[in-house]
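Action item from last meeting closed. Structure (289 res):
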């Protein structure tokens, strides 16, 4: 037997083998699904630079025959867009920061601390996930009005600074962290707050990124609650302002709505592209234990 015959063949790489074994029709299906997902966003972007008459044209034109920035000019000049944008940013960032801090604290307590009623409390958290938000909408509005927070940004922020989904997500992630880290910190004399901020929180990057983007997306696009709480124009958020000003008494200004939708979607899209690696990692690691 020769040396060449004795030398074992190098196994094919796993990634290359999986690539060769994957049927081509699967990539065709996935490509078709990608087109279906991306097409509405491309249509929204292209139609936002069309004149209103061309947006309403039948049959529709895929590429604009006349390029115009009139919709964006109306959005930024005739409407008080900077105020609405700032209101949306303040509300979304405050709600996101509150969820990242308070949900992490509650998740740490439910995952690593022992106290009476721990299982019952976690059961309540899971139970609230099953309650539709519309059920608590009216009581929440009455409570917000009674304490004098109607028509304020604080009234849009305070009811959502912590949510059951965030508590569940952080609890599942923190539960996967080794207990030895916490025990070593306690031996060194660290208190629970110092353990949380110095040991636990720095390790929760993927889960915090996931919670942050999901919370920011929900708060940024929230329409019904700001519509009810905000009673004057200076407290409107972007979705509320677009819905009220783009829909006239006689006809809807679709070009203005599409331009506003582009501006609303853009910040969320940028944040997702920047943090997508952490988001996927956090979703994958949540539920290891």
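Sequence:
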């Amino acid at each position: 037997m020769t040396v060449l015959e004795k030398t074992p063949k190098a196994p094919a790489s796993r990634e290359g083998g999986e690539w060769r074994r994957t049927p081509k029709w699967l990539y065709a299906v996935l490509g078709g699904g990608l087109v279906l997902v991306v097409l509405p966003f491309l249509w929204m972007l292209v139609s936002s630079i069309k004149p209103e008459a061309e947006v309403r044209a039948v049959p529709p034109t895929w590429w604009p025959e006349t390029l115009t920035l009139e919709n964006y000019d109306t959005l930024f000049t005739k409407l008080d867009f900077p105020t609405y944008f700032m209101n949306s940013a303040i509300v979304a960032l405050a709600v996101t920061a509150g969820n990242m801090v308070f949900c992490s604290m509650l998740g740490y307590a439910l995952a690593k601390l022992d106290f009476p009623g721990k299982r019952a409390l976690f059961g309540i958290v899971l139970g609230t996930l099953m309650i539709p938000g519309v059920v608590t909408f009216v009581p929440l509005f009455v409570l917000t009005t009674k304490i004098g927070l109607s028509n304020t940004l604080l009234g849009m922020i305070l009811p959502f600074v912590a949510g059951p989904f965030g508590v569940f997500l952080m609890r599942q992630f923190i539960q996967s962290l080794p207990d030895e880290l916490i025990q070593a910190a306690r031996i060194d004399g660290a208190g629970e707050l110092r353990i949380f901020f110095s040991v636990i929180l720095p390790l929760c990057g993927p889960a915090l990124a996931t919670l942050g983007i999901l919370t920011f997306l929900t708060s940024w696009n929230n329409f019904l609650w700001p519509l009810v709480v905000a009673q004057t124009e200076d407290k409107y958020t972007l979705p509320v302002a677009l819905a009220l000003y783009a829909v006239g008494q006689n006809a809807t200004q679709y070009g203005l709505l599409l331009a506003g939708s582009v501006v609303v979607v853009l910040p969320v899209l940028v944040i997702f592209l920047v943090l997508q690696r952490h988001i996927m990692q956090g979703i994958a690691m949540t539920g290891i234990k």
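Note appended to the action item: Residues 3-7, 10-16 have pLDDT under 50 and may be disordered.
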